[in-house]
């Protein structure tokens, strides 16, 4: 996937992941309300760490610096899993939050921001997943046809 704009999206994904880590860590560290013990908030903390420290650095660096680690099925697999995780995370948190008119304290507002950043992350990963799958299908189609024609050419010689 040699698209130069994809690296800018990777940087934005890492920044949004770090924002989610910071906001969810703040909510978890505030022991005075029930959000501190929510498994949805814990999942979003994991997801922010997964995005900022594991998935996005791998997706951005492996094809450039470690091409042997950038397997053509692993890249779309990581993209799809991360996209599904973000979708599940921001929808689950959005369903648990009270309406905005009842959200007047800092942890609730932080979780509203986490929901928005989670939705943006899902959109960004949807875009990069689409291009990863297109790249996989293009690579698969061109690789199979190239192998068949090359193999048939050697048989006739």
UniProtKB/TrEMBL annotation:
It is found in: Membrane. It is a multi-pass membrane protein. The chain crosses the membrane at residues 12-32, 44-66, 73-93, 113-133. Its main location: membrane. The keyword Amino-acid biosynthesis does not apply. It comes from the Eukaryota. Residues 8-131 form the MARVEL domain. InterPro entries: Marvel. Keywords: Membrane, Transmembrane, Transmembrane helix. Pfam families: MARVEL. One of its GO terms (cellular component) is membrane. PANTHER family: MARVEL DOMAIN, MARVEL DOMAIN-CONTAINING PROTEIN. This is MARVEL domain-containing protein. It comes from Penicillium argentinense.
